[in-house]
Amino acid sequence: MLVESGPHETRVAILEHERLTELFIERHHQKGIVGNIYKGRVSRVLPGMQAAFVDIGVDRDAFLYVSEVLDSKEPYEDLSMDEEDDRDEVDDEVQEALPPVEKSIDQLLRQGQEVVVQVLKDAMPNKGARVSTQITLPGRSLVLLPGVPHLGVSRRIEDEEQREQIRARLEAVQPPGYGLIARTAGADASEDELRADLAYLLRLQERLEARAQTVSAPTLLHRDLDVALRVIRDELNEEFSTVWVEGEETHRRVVEFVEQIKPSMVQRIRLDEEGPGLFGRFDLEREIEAALDTKVWLKSGGHIVIHPTEALVSIDVNTGRYVGRHNLEDTVLTTNLEAVQEIVRQIRLRNLGGIIVIDLIDMVEESHREQVFVALEAELAKDRSKNKVLEISEFGLVQLTRKRSRPSLERLLTSPCPYCRGTGRIRSLTTTALELRRRLLAARSRFSEVEILLRAHPDLAQSLQREERPILDELETELRSTILIQSDSDMHRERFDFSEL
């Protein structure tokens, strides 16, 4: 793990087998709000959508679904499910623990009502943050669920005997009226360690309740840890050989935090003393830049093409320059096996979410399809975010869903192109030249038999003087005018203007 902290942003990278697999970035002037807890005010109730808008004091009202409203009047005595999961999936675990909501949103909330909510997903360009009234407080070993007496064990702990032992320890420390989820990091925690983690979380809950009673909405009640400490809390385990930290102040904070949550790992926290540029020394800047490209080359010579859209993410696999050694089916199998490893790495690195459709190269043999699918499942098992994958279809398509609570790498590092406005395409020079022809001919009464000054982008000006010269000649003939072209690099490539000299 590499932690690079500067005055403007903090970046945390996770490397597996010396390759970048996950990247976390937090800009200090625009921090994400996932995990934050607010006292908000219901600004609007929408029975038709079974949802409500909640003012939490940020730019756009948050969105609260009826299924995420905790009804204090509902009974919870029968809840003792043994389900999942870790930090990014806690809200799914909680939803399974809660009794089904049978009331309408307007029976649970009213306009102007003050509610305490926690942010589940950051705001997107076209929607506000998503919130829940069920508060979850994550520690190192436990997640505390105030008001929901539910016990859960991370699904990543698969051994049934170990799960039963953990459950017994949870039952021994569970306080009345609270639920607990054992995190993967707490699999080997003793009862005393669980009690220490629980005591910290209960103190935090008491401070939240006291503050919520004394402030008016909208107010921030609790801010989640910054990205460096949050990733350390959620990710650090015995599999990490070293955590390199740039900056003495950040190193001090990380060491103090690890001493509290995982003292045995303190010796693996190293201060990078070579000065700024930790990511550069591990050659990560190039990998981050490549993660914004649509095409990713494979070692064999094949490649994958990644296209995020509004509805889903499409990933296409191609043999590219790879021609194989024996026969076509072996070539296809080799390419697909290499592709699924890189695809999952890119999904994690780019933080792609929602519906993802992978178009593999068609495989004739059923055994080959099964082999590729098993390889894909094995790679997805390494991903902490919750995902669900369907079998390879007869068309060679794989559909999967992946949960994402924070913006993708593309949204975080880029903005929509001012030329194409996010479509990825702009009008060709020929299309723009023909539009110019139509506009001038429609205004022939104003521009007949005069000198015309045409101001255009240099690319369009050059095209009119070369490839599209027939259009310019026709206009001068039809208008009986001379057209003088002025190149202007400040002009949009699709725009132009003309005036009489």
Describe the model.
The protein has 501 residues and is an alpha+beta fold. It has helices at residues 90-97, 105-108, 160-173, 191-214, 227-235, 248-261, 278-281, 284-290, 328-350, 366-380, 409-413, 429-442, 444-447, 458-465, 469-479, and strands at 2-5, 9-16, 19-27, 37-46, 51-55, 62-65, 114-121, 130-132, 137-138, 142-146, 151-153, 178-182, 219-222, 243-246, 269-272, 295-297, 303-308, 313-318, 354-359, 387-389, 397-402, 451-456, 482-487, 496-500. Strands 4, 5, 6, 7, 8 and 13 form a six-stranded antiparallel beta sheet that branches. A six-stranded mixed beta sheet has the order 16-17-18-19-21-20, covered by helices on one side. Strand 16 (295-297) and strand 17 form a beta hairpin. The protein is globular, with a radius of gyration of 29 Å. The termini are far apart.
Give a quick rundown of the structure:
This protein is α+β, with helices and mostly antiparallel strands. The chain has 15 helices and 24 strands.
Overview features:
alpha+beta; 501 residues; six-stranded mixed sheet; six-stranded antiparallel sheet
Radius of gyration: 29 Å
Could you describe the largest sheet, including whether it forms a barrel? 6 strands, antiparallel
- Large-scale geometry: globular
- The beta-strand count equals 24
Task: Quote the average pLDDT.
Answer: 87
Structural class: alpha+beta
